[in-house]
Design goal:
By secondary structure, the protein is α+β, with helices and mostly antiparallel strands. About 25% of the residues lie in helices and about 45% in strands.
């Protein structure tokens, strides 16, 4: 299970999880447009339906999805740093968060024949409620990614 904390100033979310797979496999699940929509989401909640990624510094990325109520959403940004399979830094702008633009840093460290995934998501100081919402989201997302990479479970096969 992922551990997730918010800094006392409510600016940054720190999350981590161990995934029993090499960093290259985890990086692939994060960046492959064919794989990401298979695991990012949950029945009766929301799901990503399309993911586009130009995985290079200054490359754009976008995920499009649908909520349980049928409303569509979008999260997009730009990759700031790309060092496969160990580092991915991207801007993050969610359609439901107004003008809030934040930054996500993914660190994938080899650990005990697997990968320690560390996320640092910063830029929430002006909106502590968004930090709380995103921290709950990262808890779910990291668990979904873990079950996909380790067990091949998708949104449709995961219980």
């Amino acid at each position: 299970m992922a551990t997730v904390t918010i800094t006392p100033d409510h600016d940054t979310i720190n999350a981590e999880i161990f995934i029993a797979a090499p960093p290259a496999r985890v990086f692939q699940a994060l960046t492959d447009p064919q794989q990401m929509p298979r695991w990012w989401g949950q029945k009766e909640m929301y799901r990503v339906t399309k993911f586009e990624a130009d995985v290079r510094a200054n490359g754009k990325w976008k995920s499009v999805g649908v909520g349980v109520n049928g409303d569509s959403f979008e999260v997009s940004g730009e990759y700031l740093e790309v060092d496969p399979p160990h580092l991915l830094v991207q801007t993050w702008k969610a359609s439901w968060a107004g003008t809030l633009s934040t930054k996500v840093r993914w660190e994938l460290q080899p650990h005990n024949n697997g990968t320690l995934v560390k996320i640092t998501h910063g830029g929430f100081a002006a909106n502590p409620a968004a930090a709380k919402d995103h921290s709950q989201g990262w808890q779910r997302v990291l668990g979904w990614m873990q079950t996909f990479v380790e067990k091949g479970q998708t949104i449709d096969t995961r219980s």
